Prior knowledge:
The complex is a heterodimer of chains A (110) and B (117). With 110 residues, chain A is mainly beta. In chain A, 0% of the residues lie in helices and 56% in strands. In chain A, β4 (30-38) and β5 (45-50) form a beta hairpin. Chain B has 117 residues and is mainly β.
Amino acid sequence: RKEVEQDPGPFNVPEGATVAFNCTYSNSASQSFFWYRQDCRKEPKLLMSVYSSGNEDGRFTAQLNRASQYISLLIRDSKLSDSATYLCVVNRANAGKSTFGDGTTLTVKP
Amino acid sequence: GAVVSQHPSRVICKSGTSVKIECRSLDFQATTMFWYRQFPKQSLMLMATSNEGSKATYEQGVEKDKFLINHASLTLSTLTVTSAHPEDSSFYICSAQDKRGVDSPLHFGNGTRLTVT
């Protein structure tokens, strides 16, 4: 079993839809969590950090559930420009490196 | 925000030659940088962890003699693909964390697209 798992999708949604992605992690010592987006043939870019109390940035909401060991990303009012692959990244103290999910692909259609 | 610069962004070379890729943290010091490779429509694959002033830590299956990593300063790590072959053609990306370490996000360079002919 992978340490960080994501539903690969693809998620195909119409403009204006609300879509949610989950990411589960297996190591309870995981300490910090992030969502990135990666556009085709580009580097990953930080979308948002995920805090225990949940956090929101415009149309994006991230949540962390430590008991169930998952994080989520909710996108409201989807735009065509939201089409990308969304990567879940987990940091664990003393691991020396971050662990990536394989990404969830989102396509927003007109 | 933190900026990581990677150069070159694109390189085409002949089989058998070596290619050096630079990764610089522009506005913060990075004791650790990471090198990844990504093939089309596949996930990022961590190749190695680059540690300032010491040897890099390579992931299983990555040849350290083929992918030479040097992290000579707190703001620069280099990856040299030696004796490149067409199968080394890929998208190479570096990343760095600032001194907060595990609580800080990774900042990625803009990647280097290597094509070996």
